[in-house]
UniProtKB/TrEMBL annotation:
InterPro entries: Homeodomain-like_sf, Transposase_8, WH-like_DNA-bd_sf
One annotated GO molecular function: DNA binding
This protein's name: Transposase
Coiled-coil regions listed in the entry: 34-61
Keywords: Coiled coil
GO biological process, alphabetically ordered: DNA transposition
A Pfam family per the record: HTH_Tnp_1
Length: 76
């Protein structure tokens, strides 16, 4: 690994080892999370965070408008 990493001018043999390991996972030769699954998981986590923020905003808005409905209104 070290010799190949040096020939390819890669920082360390560990980087090359990780690339080979990920390739084996992506090819189905080794168990683990594929690159595609990692990308999907990242996107889903981002979407989940956005939905949680939107939900909090909607809860705050609902609370605000509910309080407005409970206030007595005076007509001028």
């Amino acid at each position: 690994m070290q010799a190949v990493a040096e020939k390819l001018d890669i920082g360390s043999s560990e980087t090359l080892r990780n690339w080979v390991k990920q390739h084996e996972i992506d090819a189905g030769q080794r168990p683990g999370t594929t690159t595609e699954e990692s990308v999907q998981l990242k996107a889903l986590k981002k979407e989940n965070a956005e939905l949680k923020r939107a939900n909090e905003i909607l809860k705050a808005a609902a609370s605000f408008f509910a309080a407005e409905l409970d206030r007595p209104h005076t007509r001028s």
